[in-house]
Amino acid sequence: MRRGCIAVGEFHCDGCGKLLKHPARYLAVEEKDGVEVDEGTVVRYCVDCCLEKSYAKYRSEKGESILTFLEVEPQSE
């Protein structure tokens, strides 16, 4: 399960080792052998690592570019 979070203290990204401090955004996701699973080890990734692993993406909403960690299904009209 993906959880988009805001750093409260300080810790290192499990992907690149970058130091994350408040108020950095990061993703907590459960993985097993580097693959996202429902139950596994929780790892924390910085935004750059999330974009590299395709866990995050930028999308356009109401004319603005926003970063999302969630898997969003296109809305049918």
Structure write-up:
With 77 residues, this protein is mainly beta. It has one domain. It has one helix and eight strands. The chain has one helix spanning 47-52; strands spanning 2-6, 10-12, 19-21, 25-32, 35-36, 41-46, 57-61, 64-68. A hairpin with a 2-residue loop joins strand 7 (57-61) and strand 8 (64-68). The relative contact order is 0.23.
Labels describing this entry:
77 residues; single chain; 1 helix; 4-stranded antiparallel β-sheet; mainly beta; 8 strands
Summarize the structure.
The chain has 77 residues and is mainly beta. The protein has one helix spanning 47-52, and strands at residues 2-6, 10-12, 19-21, 25-32, 35-36, 41-46, 57-61, 64-68.
Structural class: mainly beta
Quote the distance from N terminus to C terminus.
Answer: 28 Å
Shape: globular
Total count of strands = 8
What is the N-to-C succession of helices and strands?
EEEEEEHEE
Rg over alpha carbons? 13 Å
Biggest sheet record: 4 strands, antiparallel
When the domains are counted, the total is: 1
Classify the oligomer: single chain
Percent helix: under 10%
Low-confidence stretches: none
Strand content: over 45%
Number of helices: 1
Give the overall average pLDDT: 90
How is the topology of this model organized?
Blueprint: E1 2-6, E2 10-12, E3 19-21, E4 25-32, E5 35-36, E6 41-46, H1 47-52, E7 57-61, E8 64-68
Antiparallel strand pairs: 1-4, 2-3, 4-5, 4-6, 7-8
